[in-house]
From TrEMBL:
GO terms for biological process: glycolipid biosynthetic process. This is Saccharopine dehydrogenase NADP binding domain-containing protein. Keywords: Membrane, Transmembrane, Transmembrane helix. SUPFAM superfamilies: NAD(P)-binding Rossmann-fold domains. It comes from Volvox africanus. It comes from the Eukaryota. GO terms for cellular component: lipid droplet; mitochondrion; plasma membrane. The chain crosses the membrane at residues 279-303.
């Protein structure tokens, strides 16, 4: 068993004084304080005390929440914090710079872990370093538990589960089309993106861009799926054009990682499952404009002088969109899958939120993921499809339990319809009539 009960805290928020960390604490203060045992953790006690004071305006009893301190570079100090929790929610990035000791100590101390990283190269190293030990201890280490990559990962899982459980078939293709949305950007996100470009070897970045199984292959799965690339793409099942989505390079790899882990549990998404993610466009011209915007972003981040110039005008680490911007944000994604049948059907769904994706949604997604690990542990253990431990994706660790928590928190994750039902029924009827004729003869 991973956890030695009782521990002082069910949840410890690591990086609680950072932009997203504060939001996680705000969610707890508003909706869960008094229902869970929790603490705030980070490097600077004065900043943590300031956050706690601000949160007391939401809920005065938050003033009694414990504060734990440690420097991320001090492994023993990190371990002393982590061992007090059932799950640590990590929000302090760039994770390649500040996350190694937190993950290592979580595994060492038998503490579940979840974070909001989108740094896929660091996630791969985490799997290589910690998966075997975490699996042997029953510790769940979950990366990419925010907007990167919960909508993609959990949305795809929802669609596949529907097809398997309701239609009795797997899926050959899944599409996620990013629709209308509005949100801000924080300095931490920008710093993480810049850190990847400046610190990772060019050969590794090329591998990320070319290998859809960049994470899945570490769990034993490869196949014919390819990254979306930056060119406009025609999505035939829904007859629309799409341009590249900036986070597809992370999200698609997490989706295939889930497929790998479910395949290991004898619940594969499909025999040769493929995934595409892009920004829905009104036509080819619109999709081309999305491509141009992505190329421009890549140039700015990839060219050192332009990157330095951009940093002067964009939010610094610890800064992000205002409360009004967060509450005024929203996002909506369309989900489409093609069934693995002789006469394929198209199943449509959607996911979304009426608040900012990168920060309000991300902080709540992370919190609900962590709470699933500790409050719903018996239900997770009862689902034979879910891995018991290791470095894994949110869907492969939490499955339907997390979907329920997200819906209860205000997110929409819904299957809305099946196209091709009439054609399917006609074929079944013809087959039955043919069988009757054969018997009569």
């Amino acid at each position: 068993m991973a956890l030695v009960a009782p521990r002082p805290y069910q949840v410890v928020v690591w990086g609680a004084s950072g932009f997203t960390g504060r939001l996680v604490c705000e969610h707890i203060a508003r909706d869960y304080h008094g229902k869970i045992r929790w603490a705030m953790a980070g490097r600077d006690p004065k900043k943590l005390e300031q956050v706690r004071s601000e949160l007391s305006r939401i809920n005065p009893s938050v003033q009694d929440v414990p504060i734990l301190t440690a420097d991320a570079n001090d492994a023993p100090a990190v371990g002393a914090v982590v061992r007090q929790a059932e799950v640590v929610l990590a929000t302090a990035g760039p994770f390649a710079r500040h996350g190694d000791n937190v993950v290592a100590q979580a595994v060492e101390q038998g503490t579940h872990y979840a974070d909001i990283t989108g740094e896929v190269t660091w996630v791969r190293r985490s799997i290589q370093r910690h998966h075997t030990a975490a699996a042997s201890k029953g510790v769940k280490v979950l990366h990419c538990c925010g907007y990167d990559s919960v909508p993609s990962d959990m949305g795809t899982f929802m669609m596949v589960e529907y097809c398997k459980e309701k239609l009795g078939c797997g899926v050959t293709q899944a599409f996620m089309l990013v629709g209308d949305g509005r949100g801000g950007v924080s300095g931490g996100t920008l710093e993480s993106a810049c850190n990847i470009i400046s610190q990772e070897a060019s050969s590794e970045l090329k591998r990320v861009a070319s290998d859809q199984y960049y994470l899945a292959s570490l769990h034993g799965l490869t196949g014919s799926d390819k990254p979306a690339g930056i060119l406009p793409h025609y999505v035939a099942p829904v007859r629309t054009w799409a341009g590249p989505f900036v986070m597809e390079g992370v999200n698609a790899k997490v989706v295939q990682e889930s497929n790998a882990l479910f395949t290991a549990a004898s619940y594969p998404y499909g025999k040769d499952f493929k995934y595409y993610e892009g920004v829905a466009a009104s036509g080819l011209v619109g999709a081309g404009l999305v491509t141009a915007a992505i190329v421009l972003i890549g140039v700015v981040i990839g060219v050192p002088p332009l990157r330095a110039l951009a940093r002067r005008f964009l939010p610094a680490p610890g800064q992000g969109p205002s409360e009004a911007a967060r509450k005024g944000g929203f996002w909506h994604h369309e989900l489409v899958v093609v069934t693995e049948e002789e006469t394929p059907r198209v199943v449509r769904g959607h996911c979304g939120d009426r608040r900012d994706p990168g920060y309000w949604s991300t902080s709540r997604m992370l919190l609900e993921t962590g709470l699933a690990l500790v409050l719903d542990a018996p239900r997770l253990a009862a689902d034979p499809r879910l891995a018991r431990g290791g470095v894994m994706s949110p869907a492969a660790a939490c499955g339907s339990v997390l979907l329920e928590r997200l819906r209860a928190a205000g997110f929409s994750f819904d299957v809305v319809g099946v196209e091709g039902e009439e054609k399917k029924k006609d074929n079944v009827t013809k087959a039955a009539e043919g069988a009757k004729v054969a018997v009569a003869k």
